[in-house]
Structure formats: structure tokens, C-alpha cells
UniProtKB/TrEMBL annotation:
This is VanZ-like domain-containing protein. The keyword Magnesium does not apply. PANTHER family: INTEGRAL MEMBRANE PROTEIN (PTHR36834:SF1), MEMBRANE PROTEIN-RELATED (PTHR36834). Residues 27-98 form the VanZ-like domain. The chain crosses the membrane at residues 28-46, 53-72, 84-104.
Length: 107
């Protein structure tokens, strides 16, 4: 946990932010957002017909990151939730890429 983030969330909650908006929600959302560009750019690189490459690539990259954390970074924790969030971000990036490519083709 990042102490500055924990403090920022506590201040936000004192100012009226909802209780569900805690560290876990912020971390999950950050992991989703972090992988959106991955899915988006893989889609641009391989095209919409190979959209599965961005989704599978996001999953595999996330699994690799979590495996490295589990094996080589004792201060970090590997998490299935992180794999889920990262993969969701890659899928979201692919979907955004499909929409963007579709609009560009119509112009």
C-alpha cells in the first residue's frame, strides 16, 4: 500500500466520498486503466480480426507480471484480482480500439 494514497482516500472519505471507494477499489480501477492502452495498441497493430490477440496478450502479460511478483519480489503480493483487472483493461482497450477503427473507416 502506498501511504500517500491511503491518506488521500481517508481525506476523501472525510469529505464525503463513499465508503466503497477505498484502497481496493482504487487499486482495481488503476489496474484496469493501466492495461487499456495495451489492448488498444495491440488491436491497432494486429487489426480487429485478431482482437483476441489483445485480450489473450493482456491476460498472459498480467500472469507474467504476477508470477514475477510472486517469485522475485517478496515485498509484493501476486493477486488473481490483479490478473482479472488487468485482463479487463486489455479487453476494454480492444473494445475501444474496435469502436475507434470503425469510426475511422466510416469517415
Amino acid at each position: 500500500m502506498h501511504p500517500w494514497l491511503v491518506r488521500a482516500i481517508a481525506v476523501g472519505q472525510r469529505l464525503g466520498a463513499p465508503r466503497w471507494l477505498g484502497y481496493d477499489a482504487v487499486e482495481f480501477t488503476a489496474n484496469v486503466v493501466f492495461f487499456v492502452p495495451f489492448g488498444f495498441f495491440v488491436l491497432l497493430l494486429f487489426g480487429a480480426r485478431a482482437s483476441w490477440v489483445g485480450m489473450l496478450g493482456g491476460f498472459l502479460a498480467s500472469c507474467a507480471i504476477e508470477t514475477v511478483q510472486a517469485l522475485f519480489l517478496p515485498a509484493r503480493f501476486a493477486s488473481v484480482d490483479d490478473v482479472l483487472a488487468n485482463t479487463s483493461g486489455a479487453v476494454l482497450g480492444v473494445l475501444v480500439g474496435i469502436v475507434v477503427l470503425g469510426r475511422l473507416r466510416r469517415q
